Amino acid sequence: MTAYDAQTALDAIHHRQEQTLDEYVRHANSRPYLIVSVLGLFAVFSSFDLPSPWSTAAVLAGNGLVLGGFFVYERRAPVRRKTVGSELLFYAAMGILLLVVFWTVAIGAYFLGLPARHTLAAAVTALAAVAASYALRPFVESVVRSNGHV
Q1: What residues contact 49, with CB distance under 8 A and at least 6 apart?
Q2: Which residues lie below 8 Å from residue 123, measured CB to CB, with a gap of 6+?
Q3: For 148, left (φ over 0), alpha (ψ -120 to 50), or beta?
Q4: Does 148 have pLDDT greater than 70?
């Protein structure tokens, strides 16, 4: 094997790795999974305003949407890779931030005397999740690329 052949093979490997990371990021940011997750988030958070049997049904439906969407997301993934610590830390921070947004809006609506404060907070949180997913895509892509292994 010549030096040119070795460099060509190495370039091909890097090209395939870039294609794999591109596909992983594209699948991670797909719109159908975002919609299902946001609907589940809204159903669970707005369930606080419902009476007892309906709140349980809303929580079950919301969790079913999120877990079912996650299952389909994992099964249809064209690329499988292990999530590394920095990605998990980022996703945990986003989850905590969404909880803070929800409770801040709910408490603010309580002090303003607004009806259905949890539903309002759930809607604001769902919209914040959608906005954050679009705004943070470049950052998520850079986190995935910095961890680069497939």
Answers
A1: 55, 116, 117, 118, 119
A2: 42, 46
A3: left
A4: no
- H-helix or E-strand containing 136? none
Give me the long-range contacts of 109-117 (CB less than 8 A, separation at least 24).
116/49, 117/49
Domain boundaries, the chain: 3-147
Cβ proximity of 79 and 18 under 8 Å = no
| pLDDT per residue as tens digits for the range 61-100 | 999 999 998 888 888 888 777 777 888 898 899 999 999 9
Q: What is the pTM of this model?
A: 0.82
Cβ atoms of 119 and 46 within 8 Å: the answer is yes
pLDDT at residue 81, as a whole number = 76
Buried b (16+ CB within 10 A) or exposed e, 56-92: eebbeebeebbeebeeebeeeeeeeeeeeeebeebee
Cβ atoms of 147 and 76 within 8 Å: the answer is no
Q: What is the distance between the alpha carbons of residues 141 and 43, in angstroms, rounded to a whole number?
A: 29
